[in-house]
Amino acid sequence: MSELQEDIAEQLVVAAETLDGLSRLELQTLLRTAALVITDLRRQVEERTEAEREA
After folding, report:
1. What is the 3-state secondary structure (H, E, C) of the chain?
2. pLDDT for residue 1
3. Taking Cα atoms as reference points, which of 3, 30, 32, 35 lies closest to residue 18?
4. What does each C-alpha distance from 21 to 3, 14, 25, 39, 52 come to in angstroms?
5. Phi, psi torsion values for 42, nearest 5 degrees
6. pTM for this predicted structure
């Protein structure tokens, strides 16, 4: 597992430990934020992969 994957996994464990006390709105906000982060990470990976192909 890459360092980034390990970091994300660790953050997910911490988040899971705190989810029990969150309201529905807080959970929705958390999930939307996670979706935005994942989308941005995908974009970065795609850009990096394309740049490596062109190099």
Report:
1. CCHHHHHHHHHHHHHHHHHHHCCHHHHHHHHHHHHHHHHHHHHHHHHHHHHHHHC
2. 59
3. 30
4. 29, 13, 12, 27, 44
5. -60, -45
6. 0.58
In angstroms, the CA 22 to CA 41 distance is: 26
pLDDT in single tens digits along all 55 residues of the chain: 578 778 887 888 887 777 777 788 888 888 888 888 889 999 999 999 999 999 8
CA-to-CA separations, 2 to 28, 33, 44, in angstroms, rounded: 28, 22, 16
- Cα separation values, 32 from 24, 29, 36, 39, Å: 12, 5, 6, 11
